[in-house]
Amino acid sequence: MEARLQASPQQFVVSHLKEEDFKTDGLRDYSSYRDLAVAAATNGLAQVHVIRMIAPFRPELSVRHHHNVQFQMVYCLKGWFETEFDGAGRHRLVAGSSWVQPPGIRHTVVGWSDDCELLEILMPAEPETVNDE
Q: What percent of the chain has pLDDT over 90?
């Protein structure tokens, strides 16, 4: 069966790497985010950003939470990133690996490398994050 996305006006967009595009006003204060302009180009259908961990991991940063999304994928560009998922166990992404997080799956980040860099794709562009603790 073929899945179809609801049609919405979209624009062509190109995003070139500029260090000044990494901002620290995102979801987590221990990360910087580079918006790839997909949300604006798709009228909120999707969001794609590069996430850099800018602080060393500390256990107090582990907060059990979930995201109210339709789709979420994380791809590791550099280093490693580890998370514990309810019902799926503990998994570590390393450069070149990815996971798809089902909508609403509860999880806790348990560590990352100092050079960790991730690509994250979300649908819709502005999902709600809910702390479960």
A: 66
Residue 13 lies in a domain: no
Q: What is the pTM of this model?
A: 0.87
* Peptide bond between residue 124 and the one before it cis (omega within 30 degrees of 0): yes
Among the listed residues 115, 113, 79, 85, the one whose alpha carbon sits nearest the alpha carbon of residue 99: 85
Q: Is the per-residue pLDDT at 6 higher than 70? A: no
How would DSSP label each residue in 14-32? -----GGGEES-SS-TTEE
3 in a structural domain: no
Contacts 24+ apart (CB under 8 A), 22-25: 22/50, 22/52, 24/54
Identify residue 31 by its one-letter amino acid code. Answer: S
Domain count, the chain: 1
Q: Please write the tens of the pLDDT for every residue from 30-72.
A: 889 999 999 999 999 999 999 999 989 888 877 888 889 999 9
Q: Which helix (H) or strand (E) holds 72?
A: strand 71-78
Burial of 132 (0-12, 13-18, 19+ CB in 10 A): exposed
